[in-house]
Amino acid sequence: MSQNVVVIGGGPAGIEASRKLRDLGYTPILIEKEPVLGGHLARWDRLFPDGVEARAVLRPMLEDLDGIKYFTDTEIASINRLKDTWVVKLSNGLSAQVRAILLTTGFDLFKAEKKEEYGYGIYERVITNAELEDWFKSGAAPQFDKVHTIGFVHCVGSRDEKAGNRQCSKVCCVTAVKQACEFKEKYPDLTVYCFYMDLRMFGRKYEDLYLKAQKEHGVRFVRGRVSEVSEDIDGHLFVKAEDTLFGKPLKIKMDMLVLMCGMAPAASTPALARMMSLSAGEDGFFLPQSLVSSPCTSSREGVFFAGSATGPKTIPETLGEAANAALAIDRYLKTPEKA
Amino acid sequence: MGKIYDRLAQDYRIKEGLKACISCGTCTAICPAAEFYRYNPKKIVTIVQSRDDDAIVELLKSDVIWYCGECLSCVTRCPRKNAPGLVIMALRALSIELGYFAESEKGRQMLPLMHAMQRNVLNYGYCVYPKTFAYDKHPEYGTVGKWTQDNMEEVYERLGAHLGQVGPGALRKIPQESLDELKAIFDLTGATRWMEIVEEKSLEKAREMGLTMEEYEAQAFNQTSSCHLNPQE
Amino acid sequence: MIYQGKQKIWSEYQKEIPTDDWFYVRSCIRQSFFPASEKMFLEILRNRLGKNVYETPSHTTCGGIAYHSEAIPQETMMTIIARQFALMTEAGYENYVCSCITSFGLYTEVMEDWREFPELEAKIRENLWKATKREFKIPKYLAHASDLIYKFRNEIAEQAKFRLVNKATGEPLRVVEHIGCHYSKMFPSKGVGGAEYPYVLAGMVESWGGEVVDYPERRHCCGFGFRQYLVRANRGYSVSNTHKKFESMEPFKPDMIITNCPGCPYFLDRWQYVIAEQTGKTYGENGYGIPVFTYEEVAGLVLGYDPWDLGLQTHQVAVEPLLDKMGIPYHPEDKYKGLNGKELQRPEFPMNIKCC
Question: N or C terminus of chain B: which is more exposed, having fewer CB within 10 Å?
Answer without folding.
Answer: C
